[in-house]
Amino acid sequence: MRTGQPTAGAEAAAGGSDGGMPRPLDNLRNQLIQLELFLSSGTVCLSLYSLVAGVFGMNIPYTWNDNHGYVFKWVVLVSGLFCAFMFVSIVAYARHKGLVGS
Where is the segment annotated Disordered (predicted)? Predict the structure, then answer.
């Protein structure tokens, strides 16, 4: 009568679940996780930058923008530098914690 449970001989012949195949798959999974970390942190930084550029790019008549045409340039420049710094900080933190790089 079969119970659906593998016998001890079959489990020993299969080599358990830590055979030769899981190691390359684990390495590939780790590389995909690292790629996902880079892509998601870049997405967050670019979305913050586009939020700032979108708010200041609208044609809404702000009173503080009168006679200050250079404000848009500086706000976009400063927010771009902040987002680049934030991306580099996220990557540096991931490297410090050992999540990226081997």
Answer: 1-23
How many domains does the chain contain in total?
Answer: 1
Q: Is 99 helix (H, G, I), strand (E, B) or coil?
A: coil
Q: Domain for residue 9, yes or no?
A: no
Spatial separation of the C-alpha atoms in residues 44 and 83, rounded to whole Å: 9
Q: Answer yes or no: is 92 within a domain.
A: yes
Would residue 10 count as lying in a domain?
A: no
CB 28 within 8 A of CB 81: no
In this prediction, residue 1 has a pLDDT band, given cuts at 50, 70 and 90, of: low
Q: Is position 63 within any domain?
A: yes
User: What residues have CB less than 8 Å from 42, skipping those under 6 apart?
Assistant: 87
